[in-house]
Amino acid sequence: AAVTGRDSAELKDKYPADEYVCFGEYHSDKEPFWVTTLHSFQKNHDCLIDIAINKRGVLSPATFKRIPAVVFDYVFNQANLIRCTATIRASNEASIKLVLAWGFELEGVKRNGYFQPKIEDQFIFGLLKENCQWL
User: Fold this and answer.
1) Strand ranges in the chain using DSSP code E only, listed in sequence order
2) How confident is the model at residue 27 (pLDDT cuts 50, 70, 90)?
3) I want to staple 99 with a disulfide (CB 3.0 to 4.6 A). Which of 6, 74, 77, 104 is the partner?
4) Residue 72: which H helix or E strand, with range?
5) 31 or 87: which carries more pLDDT confidence?
């Protein structure tokens, strides 16, 4: 289920930078399993995606497929964007593997792009609608 910052009908025509959309699932004990936030929308073009997966357990093949199917259906079909951008710390190997498996491509490196809790490079990944295998 999606949680939106405003009514979704209103979001259909207007995507200012302060709007967001969240998707996620919870374990039976109400602990979050995974959460994805879409934000910084550029109307009819792009948005940033943040993905958080609880370290308790591993993604099953079904969950691995369900997350992008839900999220990218929203990004590319409902919000009608042409791309989605993810930024990841250079040291976050698990997230890098995940977005690459979902079809994102490395588009650049922002040197010293992160400064807290430590300074490190920020990898910039992009996924274009035309390359999305989850639609």
Assistant:
1) 2-4, 20-26, 32-42, 46-53, 83-89, 105-114, 120-128
2) confident
3) 104
4) helix 61-73
5) 87
